[in-house]
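Changelog excerpt

This revision adds worked examples to the README so contributors can see how folded entries look when concatenated. The first example is reproduced verbatim below.
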Amino acid sequence: EMPLEELQSKYRKVSSLEKAQKGWQEEYEVSSKQ
């Protein structure tokens, strides 16, 4: 069984990774249109 703090920090890492990936994709699309 995983402690709550570990689960929360894991989720935070995952969600920030997803945000970073999304931001990178948007930036890439913008720069490729120029």
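The second example, added in the same revision:
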Amino acid sequence: MRGGSSWVGVVWRGLGKKTSHSSYSSPPKYPSVLPDAWIPSTKHHRLQSSGIFPSGHTAAIIDGKSIARDIRFRIAGEIRRAKAATGKSPGLAVVLVGKRRDSKTCINIKLRACDEIGIATLIAELPENCTETELLDVVSGLNEDPSVHGIIVQLPLPQHLDEEKIMTVVSPEKDVDGFHPLNMGNLAMRGREPLFIPCASKGCIELLLRLGVEIVGKKSVVIGRSKIVGLPTSFLLQVISTFLLIQSIFVSGCVIYCWSAEAPRNGQHRTCIHQKPGTDNFSS
């Protein structure tokens, strides 16, 4: 590591020169004014019928890949214009602890997308046995790095590391995963706007709105309560004013709750969770 850093064992790849930071005790600076709320696109994409559920309801396949291509194309244009105006490209830093294959796969997908649209990337790789202090120092350094505009700490972390503590240290202004308590809290409270929204939940709502699905005033069911998908999705649906039921994946009879839900719906199409006969598996 260049610059006499105390981050022993950290491997940096990407954005270039890093500086040394030895403390994580200073809290991140909060912005005085939160930005405008995220407003998803309402461009419609076609639903493809894939069969008939019981009671005559039609299953539909949502072509998320084409929607993702549209979004990447739009963002690439925005980045080109911003770079032409400022001479700078947005920078994303990804912190990886250990060598989990699934984590590396997720990171590679993110890096390919960044490369496609013009976002500069940096990877900070730490050994699985790194200390919490070492990891916090890395995150603190990225908070202070002006070339880094977004930070992702790839989850899950090894068991000896406190995920909640780590995510709290990430600056909310760079918390692109939306897991910082400030961002999650603002998402949960009506009338407040988070700096970032968890991408999986944001993607769910984006898909529904692009398909022209009417959500407002409908009954919705969210299966699962994870902080990565379930809870933030429920917060978004509540902001959109739906009657919401959060259902545990371990509760029997959740298919009944899903069939009683009114949203999401598009014409005769109903997006729901269907239990395959004789199995515990669910498909949409």
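Reviewer comment on example two: The chain has a mean pLDDT of 75. The longest helix spans residues 64-86.
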